[in-house]
């Protein structure tokens, strides 16, 4: 994703990767588990001129998560369509509970924040062959899981590690970039981002820096 040319991705999934399905559960009146979601998600965004595509799998607005009356499902679905992550949490809950959907949508509703303040977001991202992301840092704790392909994770110190299917990174606010090392095949990663408290190293506050990815996400002022 780092250079200026365009990539081949026009939709989710990338042409050479299988569609990914998500399954959401709830409970029936007897308290038994039932499936209430079986789809591919509703928020697919092609990124960086076709170098990648993101699919929001689920998001929450609080920790602990309120599962009562399926308010979390309502928020997650609205966030996919309307990017409620741009709203204050109380306004977002009002939106989710408002049957007529008459609340004002955020001006840049097509762009979610990279994470959800006080909450979480889960994304699948397909990377085009040979793509390298810009250096960037989200102010969150990020779990990255390689689903398909091989990736190189490089930090701003110059340290790097290779990751293979099933490998997991735990990124605690470090500046980093990703590279799909296969020049011929797309790769897929799953990211879980959890909000965190302000981070200080040797008394200096570490701030969010999305670099060239800043235009891909809403500004959360953090």
List the helices and strands and how they pair.
Elements: E1 22-27, E2 33-39, E3 44-47, E4 52-60, H1 71-82, H2 89-97, E5 120-127, E6 140-148, E7 151-155, E8 160-163, E9 168-172, E10 176-180, E11 187-195, E12 199-201, E13 204-206
Antiparallel strand pairs: 1-2, 3-4, 4-5, 5-11, 6-9, 6-11, 7-8, 7-10, 12-13
Written description of the protein model:
With 222 residues, the chain is mostly beta strands. Helices cover 9% and strands 35% of the residues. The protein is built from 2 helices and 13 strands. It has helices at residues 71-82, 89-97, and strands spanning 22-27, 33-39, 44-47, 52-60, 120-127, 140-148, 151-155, 160-163, 168-172, 176-180, 187-195, 199-201, 204-206. Strands 3-4-5-11-6-9 form a 6-stranded antiparallel β-sheet. Strands 8-7-10 form a 3-stranded antiparallel β-sheet, with no helix packed on it. Helix 1 packs across helix 2 (89-97). The relative contact order is 0.19.
């Amino acid at each position: 994703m780092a250079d200026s040319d365009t990539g081949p991705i026009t939709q989710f999934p990338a042409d050479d990767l299988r569609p990914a399905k998500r399954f959401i559960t709830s409970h029936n009146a007897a308290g038994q588990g039932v499936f209430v979601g079986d789809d591919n998600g509703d928020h697919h965004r092609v990124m960086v001129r076709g170098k990648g595509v993101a699919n929001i799998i689920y998001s929450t607005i609080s920790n602990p998560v309120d599962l009562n009356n399926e308010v979390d499902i309502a928020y997650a679905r609205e966030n996919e369509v309307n990017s409620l992550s741009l709203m204050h949490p109380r306004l977002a809950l009002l939106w989710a509970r408002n049957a007529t959907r008459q609340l004002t949508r955020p001006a840049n509703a097509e762009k979610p924040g990279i994470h959800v303040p006080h909450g979480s977001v889960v994304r699948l991202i397909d990377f085009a062959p040979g793509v390298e992301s810009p250096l960037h840092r989200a102010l969150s704790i990020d779990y990255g899981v390689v689903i398909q392909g091989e990736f190189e994770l490089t930090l701003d110190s110059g340290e790097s590690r290779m990751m293979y299917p099933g490998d997991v990174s735990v990124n605690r606010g470090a500046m980093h970039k990703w590279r799909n090392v296969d020049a011929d095949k797309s790769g897929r990663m799953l990211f879980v981002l959890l909000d965190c408290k302000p981070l200080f190293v040797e008394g200096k506050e570490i701030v969010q820096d999305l670099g060239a990815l800043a235009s891909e996400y809403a500004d959360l002022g953090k």
